[in-house]
């Protein structure tokens, strides 16, 4: 929708462009753009509002299958460096034995009819309601399709199209009724996707002097940064065209309003025989550019 223009603004927008959360890739940015450019002011948006929740979760089965199994010592062989990968990513998981140890609290309310925010953050304070073991933070969403209908991926929904987001802790934490869990959760939107971070602190009976555990986790810590890629994002990088750029430029310069697409593909094969070894490959690559950049 970000690439189109309408002769007449629309009365209704129906979308389903998110994953486990409404905050999925460029979904929010896309909906804001569509509302501002393509819709009438009183247009109906479906869904119209989405609310994201979090709670403290006890989920031994999920933790075993998605964390412990990757860190286990198999026949004397272990991969300790994998810890930062498995602990600093959220994943989709569900199990019947999961139990929420605290109340649910709102992370964000996104009213697509008025929202202009793309990044979100929230500070939480949960009180543990029952003795148990905390394994992570459970996230989910409820949305409003209309006054009487909606969709959710909460853990008590047995059948749902959407997966259930789980944010693991760096280790299991034994908790008792009355303990307090403090958390800062953020979802920062940048370059077409979201970077999640979650910082948690467990306090015995809410006593700030008795910290049971404290963790600082982020999706960024699970990434391997390519030095060359990082350099390319610097203002001091001196860019130089590569072969792909030269090929694209060759095609664009050939779009003179006279040359046939097939002839451009033939010329492409002749100029770059190591890249395009047959006509079909050259032609498909040619039309991938002519489709985007021709009138």
Summarize the helices and strands and which ones pair or pack.
Blueprint: E1 10-14, H1 27-38, E2 39-46, E3 49-58, H2 60-71, H3 83-87, E4 91-92, E5 99-100, E6 105-111, E7 120-127, E8 132-144, E9 150-152, E10 165-175, E11 180-190, E12 193-203, E13 211-218, H4 227-232, H5 243-254, H6 261-271, H7 279-293
Parallel strand pairs: 1-2
Antiparallel strand pairs: 3-5, 3-6, 3-8, 4-10, 7-11, 8-9, 8-10, 11-12, 12-13
Helix pairs in contact: 6-7
Q: How many β-strands, per DSSP?
A: 13
Which radius of gyration do the C-alpha atoms yield? 25 Å
Mean pLDDT: 93
Structural class: alpha+beta
Distance, first to last CA: 18 Å
Please explain how this structure is put together:
The protein is of the alpha+beta class. 25% of the residues lie in helices and 34% in strands. Strands 3, 4, 5, 6, 8, 9 and 10 form a 7-stranded antiparallel sheet that branches. The chain has a 4-stranded antiparallel sheet with strand order 7-11-12-13, with no helix packed on it. A two-stranded parallel ribbon has the order 1-2. Helix 1 (27-38) links the parallel strand 1 (10-14) and strand 2 (39-46). Helix 6 (261-271) packs across helix 7 (279-293). The longest helix is centred in the C-terminal third of the chain and has 15 residues, at 279-293. The chain is globular.
């Amino acid at each position: 929708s970000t690439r189109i223009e309408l002769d007449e603004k629309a009365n209704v927008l129906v979308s389903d462009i998110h994953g486990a959360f409404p905050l999925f890739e460029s979904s929010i940015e896309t909906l804001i753009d569509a509302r501002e450019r393509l819709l009438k002011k009183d247009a109906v948006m479906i869904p119209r509002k989405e609310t994201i929740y979090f709670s403290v979760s006890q989920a031994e089965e999920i933790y075993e299958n998605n964390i412990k199994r990757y860190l286990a010592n198999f026949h004397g062989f272990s991969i300790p460096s994998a810890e930062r990968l498995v602990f600093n990513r959220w994943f989709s998981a569900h199990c019947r034995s999961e139990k929420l140890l605290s109340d649910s609290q709102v992370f964000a309310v996104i009213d697509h009819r008025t929202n202009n925010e793309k990044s979100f953050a929230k500070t939480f304070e949960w009180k543990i309601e029952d003795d148990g073991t905390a394994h992570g933070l459970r996230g989910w969403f409820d949305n409003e399709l209309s006054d009487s209908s909606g969709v959710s991926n909460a853990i008590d929904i047995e059948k749902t199209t959407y997966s259930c987001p789980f944010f693991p802790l760096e280790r299991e934490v034994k908790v008792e009724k009355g303990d307090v869990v403090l958390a800062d959760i953020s979802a920062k939107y940048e370059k077409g996707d979201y970077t999640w971070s979650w910082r948690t602190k467990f306090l015995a009976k809410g006593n700030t002097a008795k910290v049971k555990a404290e963790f600082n986790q982020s999706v960024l810590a699970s990434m391997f940064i390519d030095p060359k890629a990082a350099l390319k994002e610097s203002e001091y990088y001196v860019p130089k065209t590569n072969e792909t750029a030269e090929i694209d430029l060759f095609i664009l310069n050939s779009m003179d309003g006279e040359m046939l697409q097939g002839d451009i593909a033939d010329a492409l094969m002749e100029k770059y025989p190591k890249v395009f070894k047959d006509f079909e490959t050259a032609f498909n690559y040619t039309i991938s550019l002519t489709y985007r950049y021709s009138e």
